[in-house]
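hey so i finally got around to running the thing on that chain from the lab meeting. sorry it took forever, my laptop kept dying and i had to restart like 3 times. anyway pasting the input first so we r on the same page abt which one it is
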Amino acid sequence: MSSRSNPGDRCLTGRTSRCDRAGFGGALLAAGAAITLLSAWGWRRGEGWVWWSLAVAAVAGFVPAVTAHGAIGYLDLWHLAPVFAGAALTAVALALSRPYLCAR
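ok and heres what got predicted. didnt touch it at all, straight out
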């Protein structure tokens, strides 16, 4: 076995916070790009699939964030405020866009 360590092993040796944030940042950028592209080219009257895609993506993003924090007992309102604000803004955006995107 080589004496040189694998850079990925650093995530397992006490630097998980940095690796978790890098992974989260990458996932956040990918989700943002996907939602931007979907909104830019799919946003047309009667395209209900766009509304449902955005709604499912919102649930898939916000519910696990709150659930994970609840599971570990980290329920500091100041820490979770961005999640709740994002969920509220997303709910308003979905409510306002539904009549247009889901029109028949």
